[in-house]
Design goal:
By secondary structure, the chain is mostly helical. It has 2 domains: 129 residues, no CATH class; 107 residues, no CATH class. It contains 10 helices and no strands. Helix 5 packs across helix 6. The two termini are 40 Å apart.
Length: 249
């Protein structure tokens, strides 16, 4: 039996599938409890439904890209492991980068089907260790952080916002700047973080998605089309994907 056949065996499917099923059950339980808590607090049912619709839309669209990531990694890591990683806590850009980096360190290439019994544990361990710090730090410091957020809300005055608003805005700006910076660097040098080799496709995709979000915001805030706000993020992502496909063609 080859290494890939072992990674796609029924035992591995059972282990990974059990974990994914457990997480799915937990999500359903929290969803039901959150809905009941909202009703108990007297929240508007219409607003709650809008939140559910927006969350579902935002979740379904990125899952298409995640599915592609599972398929891309399944050729070397099997289906169960990438399915588990990308279903529970992993991110598409993180899993693929770390898997390729780990494979290079053990002297193989994921794209060439060189997976060995010795290499897979190293790759899987590195993929797990590098991403677990978010959970650990949340367990240790999340309560203090939430107290800080609450204090920021109580001191919130004018348009400046509190600590929570500023922290979220700073995090979002930093994340967007990091990605756009890597796109610009890859375009200029051809040796950027994602090895775009001078491709201007990511920059066009960013511009198309930003323009789409601006249009969604304009119609939802200026033209009274508030319902568009539920689809602004997902719609912008879809338009960005479409721009990438058109440029690729």
């Amino acid at each position: 039996m080859s290494v890939l056949e072992q990674l796609n065996s029924g035992g591995v499917y059972l282990i990974c599938g059990s974990i994914v099923a457990f997480i799915a059950v937990v999500c359903v339980i929290f969803m039901v409890r959150a809905w009941r808590a909202g009703k108990a607090l007297g929240m508007d049912t219409t607003r709650m439904k809008r939140a559910v619709t927006a969350s579902a839309t935002f979740s379904v669209l990125p899952s298409v890209g995640i599915l592609l990531g599972v398929l891309a990694l399944s050729g070397s890591l099997g289906v169960p492991w990438p399915w588990l990683r990308l279903s529970v806590i992993g991110a598409l850009h993180y899993e693929t980068q770390v898997a390729h980096a780990a494979a290079e360190q053990v002297g193989i290439s994921l794209s060439s089907g060189q997976m060995t019994v010795q290499a897979f544990p190293t790759i899987a361990l590195l993929m797990s260790i590098c991403i677990m710090w978010g959970m650990i730090l949340s367990t240790m410091f999340n309560r203090r952080y939430l107290n800080r957020l609450q204090q920021g809300k109580t001191r919130k005055t004018g348009k400046g916002g509190g600590f929570g608003d500023k922290a979220m805005a700073a995090m979002f700006i930093g994340m967007v700047s990091a990605y756009i910076g890597s796109y610009v660097g890859g375009f200029i040098s051809g040796n950027g973080l994602f090895s775009f080799k001078g491709s201007w496709t990511p920059l066009v995709v960013v511009a198309a998605a930003a323009l789409a979000m601006a249009m969604f915001t304009y119609f939802s805030e200026k033209k009274g089309k508030e319902w568009l706000d539920n689809f602004s993020v997902a719609g912008s992502m879809l338009i960005g994907m479409l721009a990438a496909v058109l440029i690729g063609q």
